[in-house]
């Protein structure tokens, strides 16, 4: 209680201890007047209650509120019975009125009801006691003649009964502490545009900050909250690595740019420190992130911000110590089975300087030491090293340069004038690894990362030409009769003979670029021969083993054409083409394969799975690709099969409005609907859903839908949330 009520502390504590000893289960309330008189001032100060301690202390506050609610209900029920006794009616009415006023005061706050709801979820048995007390109060109201007291009690009962369903009811707008537009801008950028430049994002965030007049600490807090939410909900695999790179590499760079904007007399580093102080209060969010990443995320983030000059050494140490103390009292955040697993945030932070070193290595003269370069590339293929490096490169704006180095390496392998049997396998592997890496980059981060500036047709690199004309992508329909699939007939015939007659693919003096362009026509010849019974299934197996046994990129090019071909066939004509895809997707296990074959097969399988996803769904075909231990296409096939797309848009957007914030899955659904329905359909129906939602409240981020319409890459300003 406040100081003026300090004299009540002794009787309140004394009575609290004595009461359970007197009659812990008794229905009448002995010493009620003493207990009530001592407690009224305490209850009167419930409305502004809050807790800024550890998670356990905050849960304790929730439990205490629920206990107070139960006690007030029992008091009200007790005096409701007393009112019916004529001798004590007036005094009892006064006491009951006081009970109901305290109940109204407590339950009138949405925050208090939310805290009680948390306690209800934590302790079901205690909530059952509250429900019993509520039932007893309702029974005591029967025959109560005072209509005012009855009306007050009914209002309180209604509010209590609404507590279990609070999550399904639209909440109050958090106008002062929640900024869903900032959240949505960050979520959209992290989900759809990791490779985007920093400056447009900074300008959009600053526009939102100015329009909504958001204080700098709360502004940065919202950015960090969005990052942790995105990281926690991201699917395991590539998407998780993207969000890790976005949170620990890109956002600190964004804050560095924000620091350059004028901030008046305020010290930006103090605002950053204040934002982290606020973030420390969100213990459940930080605990969830630590569990997901298997490390102390806050500590790593603070170190990175300090390295960028965003935090002083003293503030970093202070914040780190506070988070360390919180973790000691939290549940076990690092399980025994994960103790030896390197956390992704640490790996991403280590990968960032490695990207710079690899770029320098790739600038060297490849002809001087191709074997050494091959060793570097082989190391990149092991485990999840490639995805870590690509995510780090994407988050730091180096991915385009990274891709261009591999295009140049791929072009280098055209030089075969002085090749012998020793150097041929190295050249074949350099071509294969660079080709597979570029395919993987295009599928993971978009083909625009690969595309170079406009140049004459005779100077366009081989991979860029092949990707634009031959590589299947979502929403891109290829013509299997396109000239790109019909190269020089003599080269096709020699390739067919090589595949059909040789026990294994030869490597010396082979131009792999020409082989990849000729393989589609060769596959057509082989497929026709198989369908006309000129070739047996055993012959087809030998041919597909030759295709995938040495250079995996041959299998990728063959499947690329087969995917386009299957789309044009009738249901009864697809069987052999699909069988051939299945054969090419099955790794060749044996000793007669080139170096790094298992690592190359993992990337090849991921590429083929992306290529075949649409056509396999359309043909209701299942092909088992070698497992990489993760979901390679996490946000694919999100739309319900038999639900109109307008209903999907309405239901998803309505849920976003109800929650007050947008998540990554919803963004991917919106993106799919946008490409399926078109810009006009998408925007028109979005406005209809918004205007028909029953309230003209602000969208979580209306400006972000414009950016979504351009793939999250436009630099338009976000409207205030």
Question: Helix/strand/pairing class, anyone?
Answer: mainly alpha
Oligomer: single chain
Helix content: 55-70%
**Main beta sheet strand tally, sense and closure:** none
* Number of DSSP-assigned strands: 0
Q: Indicate the low-confidence ranges by residue numbers.
A: 1-47, 171-175, 699-706, 709-721
Strand content bin: under 5%
Total domain count: 4
Count of helix runs: 31
Average of per-residue pLDDT values: 81
Shape: elongated
Rg (CA only): 33 Å
Distance between the termini: 39 Å
What would your notes on this structure say?
The protein is mainly α and 721 residues long. The chain has 4 domains: 46-168, no CATH class; 180-331, Serine Threonine Protein Phosphatase 5, Tetratricopeptide repeat (Alpha Horseshoe); 347-618, no CATH class; 645-709. It has 31 helices and no strands. Helix 12 (268-280) runs parallel beside helix 15 (313-329). The longest helix is centred in the N-terminal third of the chain and has 29 residues, at 55-83. The model is unreliable at 1-47, 171-175, 699-706 and 709-721 (pLDDT under 50).
């Amino acid at each position: 209680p406040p100081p003026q009520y300090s004299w009540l502390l002794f009787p309140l504590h004394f009575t609290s201890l004595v009461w359970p000893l007197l009659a812990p289960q008794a229905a009448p309330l002995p010493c009620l007047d003493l207990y009530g008189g001592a407690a009224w001032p305490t209850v009167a100060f419930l409305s502004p209650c809050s807790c800024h301690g550890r998670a356990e202390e905050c849960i304790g506050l929730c439990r205490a509120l629920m206990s107070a609610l139960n006690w007030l209900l029992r008091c009200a029920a007790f005096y409701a019975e007393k009112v019916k006794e004529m001798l004590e009616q007036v005094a009892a009415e006064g006491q009951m009125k006081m009970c109901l006023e305290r109940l109204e005061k407590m339950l009138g706050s949405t925050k208090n009801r939310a805290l009680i709801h948390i306690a209800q979820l934590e302790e079901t048995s205690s909530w059952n006691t509250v429900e019993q007390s509520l039932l007893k109060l309702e029974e005591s109201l029967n025959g109560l003649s005072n209509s005012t007291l009855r009306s007050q009690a009914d209002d309180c009962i209604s509010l209590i009964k609404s507590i279990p369903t609070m999550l399904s009811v639209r909440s109050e707008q958090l106008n002062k502490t929640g900024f869903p537009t900032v959240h949505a801008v960050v979520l959209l950028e992290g989900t759809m545009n990791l490779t985007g430049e920093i400056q447009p994002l900074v300008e959009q965030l600053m526009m939102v900050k100015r329009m909504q007049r958001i204080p700098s600490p709360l502004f940065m807090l919202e950015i960090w909250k969005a990052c942790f939410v995105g990281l926690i909900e991201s699917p395991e695999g590539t998407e998780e690595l993207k969000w890790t790179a976005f949170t620990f590499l890109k956002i600190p760079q964004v804050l560095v740019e924000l620091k350059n904007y004028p901030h008046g007399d305020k010290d930006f580093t103090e605002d950053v420190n204040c934002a982290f102080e606020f973030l420390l209060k969100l213990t459940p969010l930080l605990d969830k992130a630590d569990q997901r990443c298997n490390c102390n995320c806050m500590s790593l983030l603070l170190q990175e911000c300090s390295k960028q000059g965003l935090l002083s050494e003293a503030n970093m140490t202070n914040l780190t110590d506070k988070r360390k103390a919180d973790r000691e009292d939290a549940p076990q955040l690092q399980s025994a089975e994960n103790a030896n697993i390197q956390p992704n945030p640490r790996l991403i932070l280590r990968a960032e300087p490695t990207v710079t070193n690899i770029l320098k290595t790739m600038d060297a003269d490849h002809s001087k030491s191709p074997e050494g370069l091959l060793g570097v590339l082989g190391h990149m293929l092991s485990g999840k090293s490639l995805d870590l490096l690509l995510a780090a490169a994407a988050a730091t704006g180096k991915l385009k340069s990274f891709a261009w180095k591999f295009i140049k390496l791929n072009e280098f392998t055209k030089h075969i004038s002085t090749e012998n049997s020793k150097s041929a396998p190295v050249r074949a592997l350099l071509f294969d690894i660079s080709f597979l890496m570029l395919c993987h980059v295009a599928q993971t981060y978009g083909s625009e990362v690969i595309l170079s500036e406009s140049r004459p047709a005779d100077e366009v690199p081989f991979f860029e030409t092949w990707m634009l004309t031959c590589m299947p992508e979502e929403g891109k329909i290829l013509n299997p009769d396109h000239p790109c699939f019909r190269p020089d007939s003599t080269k096709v015939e020699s390739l067919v003979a090589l595949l059909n007659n040789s026990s294994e693919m030869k490597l010396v003096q082979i131009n792999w670029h020409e082989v990849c362009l000729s393989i589609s026509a060769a596959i057509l010849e082989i497929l026709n021969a198989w369908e006309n019974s000129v070739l047996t299934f055993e012959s087809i197996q030998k041919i597909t083993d030759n295709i995938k046994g040495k250079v995996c990129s041959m299998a990728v090019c063959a499947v690329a054409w087969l995917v386009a071909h299957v789309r044009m066939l009738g249901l009864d004509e697809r069987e052999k083409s699909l069988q051939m895809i299945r054969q090419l997707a099955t790794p060749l296990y044996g000793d007669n394969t080139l170096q790094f074959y298992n690592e190359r097969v993992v990337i090849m399988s991921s590429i083929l799975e992306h290529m075949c996803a649409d056509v396999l769904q359309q043909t209701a075909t299942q092909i088992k690709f070698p497992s990489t231990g993760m979901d390679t296409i996490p946000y694919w096939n999100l739309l319900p099969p038999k639900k109109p797309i307008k209903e999907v848009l309405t239901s998803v957007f309505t849920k976003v409005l109800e929650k007050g914030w947008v998540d990554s899955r919803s963004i991917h659904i919106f993106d799919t609907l946008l490409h399926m329905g078109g810009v006009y359909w998408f925007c028109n129906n979005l406005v209809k859903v918004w205007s028909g939602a029953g309230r003209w409240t602000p969208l979580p981020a209306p400006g972000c839908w414009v950016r979504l319409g351009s793939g999250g890459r436009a630099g338009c300003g976000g409207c205030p949330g």
